[in-house]
Every structure is written in structure tokens, then in C-alpha cells.
Write a structure and sequence with these properties.
single chain, alpha/beta, 3 domains, six-stranded mixed beta sheet, about 15% strand, globular
Length: about 325
């Protein structure tokens, strides 16, 4: 039988989609069963403890014996550390209905390492909402994303952050301060040029997009614009899919001055007139700098209607304990 090529290709594509969907569904089903089994094992351990005085803490005789016997009967996957994680899993989520349904066991391990319940709920929501991989989740926990976002909110705002996650509803919600660029692996003492910093960002674009947050898509670097006989090159241009607007990022290795803010204002006016098309909202400008003078920024921004933000970047992970202390102070406020 002679086959019509376009029809055959359509058939092949349909079958391929069916196979891929089935495989993905099977993986999800296996993951759900694995997570449920590990939760049940944790429950059995805790209920056993409650009947006696044995505590299954790391290194205890109970964990050692359980680990050994489970490995003998069922093979790998039941090391002492793993069995302890199962117990910790149950203690963190004593109701199965509270377990985040779409996250893997590796995600769960990262989450149970977060001792604060409010912060853990935030990471659950965000990992699910933004489809973070395990490594992305681990990176955001290490970078204290929850604490950094929480510091700009009041007690009610922190609670909402925990319940709903961080939603990119407007420009203010999208922009962070500071941005943590530890993945660039630049020593603090290293003298870096702005061109060098830009190249480092491009070399680590996937991680930079993760730090920016959900919705950012990369457009260009050194984006050229011309006004009469003057030519400008914009460091980085992105488009935000949710806010439907361009985001221009200007990198500075020094303290921001009023001229930087004026230049960003020029860029945004140009984009509004020359680059925006029907459906695009007003562009956002972010000046990402090593330092900033809050008072100077306040005065320099006075009277500017464009959405300009000045944020600091830091090349090392923040002091988590210090940030947690500040968040606790917010939560303790009346």
C-alpha cells in the first residue's frame, strides 16, 4: 500500500506523543508510590518509638538495625541516612494529604532540611509552581530566597508568601534586592570589569534566569540602539512572559550614580516608542550594581514615571541565620 507522506508523518507524531505521555505518566505514578512508601516507613518507625523509649536519631541502634535488615531483604536504598530521612519525612508531614503531590523524593529530601514550617511551605509552592528541578530547589534554599523575599513584607505578607508562593503580579513583585550571583564563582576580592561580569552572566545564563525568577526569557546582550548620531549598547534585554513587557538590565561594578538612572530612563522611553508592539506593557529597567546609595537613588528617581529599580548583587550566599533572625522579628511583630 502506498502511503501519503504527510498523513503518515502525522500518524507517527500522534503515536510518538502517546508513547511519551504514557512514559511520563508511568514515571509520575512510580514517584507517587515511592514517596508514599517512604512516608509509610517513616510512620511505622515513629509509631514504634511511641510504644517504647527508643529514639531513632542518627546513629541509634534502631536505625542501624533497620538499615541492615532492610538492605538484606530489599537491596539498595535503605542506608542509615535514607531510613533517617524517611522518619524525618513523616515528622514533617504527619498527614499524607499535606505532602506536595507533584514533587519527587529528592525534592522531599531538600524540603525536610528546612526546619521552619512557613519557609518550607513557601518552597513547596514555588517548586511546584515554577517546576524546579531538585538542584534548582536546593539552590534556592541555599540562597535563602524565602528570607530575601520576606524581608520586604510585613507579617501578613510573609504568611501570604508561605500560603501562595511568590507570584509575579507586577514589576515590584518581580524585582529582588539583592540578587545572589554566587554561581558566577567570582572571588569577592577579584577586580572584575563590567564586560567581564556580563560575560560571566551569559556563560551562566540558565542559573541567572533561575535567580531572576519565573517568566523571564532572554532576548539579547549588548542590544544596539541609535539616537541621531549617538549609539548605545544595552547590557542585557529580557522579555517577561507573564507581565508581557521588556526588562532591561544594566550591570554596574560600582555604586550607582544619577547618570545611570537617567540613562536607564532614556532606554525605557526608547523601548516604549520604538520596540513595544500591541499587547506589550511598559518596559522595566533594573540597574544591578555592587553598591547603592539609598538617598541618592531616592532623589535621582524623583519625578520619573518609568519603572526603574536599583538592586544590589552579591557574589556569595547570604548569612542564612541572620536573615532568619530578621524574618522571625517580622513574624513576631504585632
Amino acid at each position: 500500500m502506498k502511503l501519503v507522506k504527510p498523513k503518515y508523518e502525522k500518524l507517527l507524531a500522534a503515536i510518538g506523543l502517546t508513547i511519551e505521555t504514557a512514559r511520563q505518566n508511568a514515571i509520575r505514578a512510580i514517584n507517587t508510590e515511592l514517596v508514599k512508601a517512604n512516608w509509610e516507613i517513616g510512620r511505622h518507625i515513629v509509631e514504634f518509638e511511641q510504644q517504647g523509649k527508643e529514639r531513632a536519631e542518627y546513629g541509634s541502634d534502631l536505625l542501624t538495625r533497620l538499615s541492615r535488615d532492610l538492605r538484606l531483604q530489599f537491596g539498595k536504598g535503605f542506608g542509615r541516612r535514607n531510613v533517617l530521612d524517611m522518619r524525618r519525612f513523616y515528622l514533617a508531614y504527619e498527614k499524607w494529604q499535606a505532602v506536595p503531590a507533584k514533587l519527587s523524593w529528592t525534592h522531599i529530601i531538600a524540603l525536610i532540611g528546612v526546619s521552619d514550617n512557613i519557609a518550607r511551605r513557601f518552597y513547596e509552592k514555588q517548586a511546584t509552581h515554577e517546576k524546579w528541578s531538585y538542584r534548582e530547589l536546593e539552590r534556592q534554599i541555599d540562597a535563602s530566597l524565602f528570607e530575601r523575599l520576606a524581608l520586604s513584607k510585613d507579617k501578613k505578607g510573609v504568611q501570604q508568601l508561605s500560603q501562595k508562593g511568590h507570584i509575579a503580579s507586577d514589576a515590584t513583585a518581580v524585582v529582588k534586592d539583592p540578587y545572589v550571583l554566587d554561581f558566577l564563582k567570582i572571588p569577592v576580592s577579584h577586580r572584575m570589569s563590567e564586560k567581564g561580569l556580563e560575560q560571566k552572566v551569559i556563560d551562566n545564563l540558565q542559573q541567572f534566569l533561575l535567580e531572576l525568577g519565573k517568566g523571564f526569557t532572554f532576548v539579547a546582550r549588548q542590544y544596539k540602539i541609535s539616537l541621531r548620531n549617538k549609539h548605545y549598547a544595552l547590557d542585557l534585554v529580557f522579555y517577561h512572559r507573564i507581565l508581557k513587557c521588556f526588562v532591561i538590565i544594566d550591570l554596574k561594578i560600582r555604586t550607582v550614580n544619577h547618570g545611570d538612572i537617567g540613562q536607564m530612563n532614556l532606554y525605557l522611553n526608547y523601548f516604549k516608542t520604538e520596540e513595544n508592539v500591541t499587547g506589550d506593557n511598559e518596559p522595566i529597567g533594573i540597574i544591578l550594581s555592587a553598591e547603592k546609595d539609598e538617598v541618592l537613588v531616592e532623589y535621582a528617581m524623583g519625578g520619573i514615571s518609568n519603572k526603574i529599580f536599583v538592586s544590589k548583587y552579591q557574589l556569595h550566599l547570604p548569612d542564612k541565620k541572620q536573615l532568619q533572625k530578621k524574618v522571625k522579628a517580622i513574624m513576631g511583630a504585632k
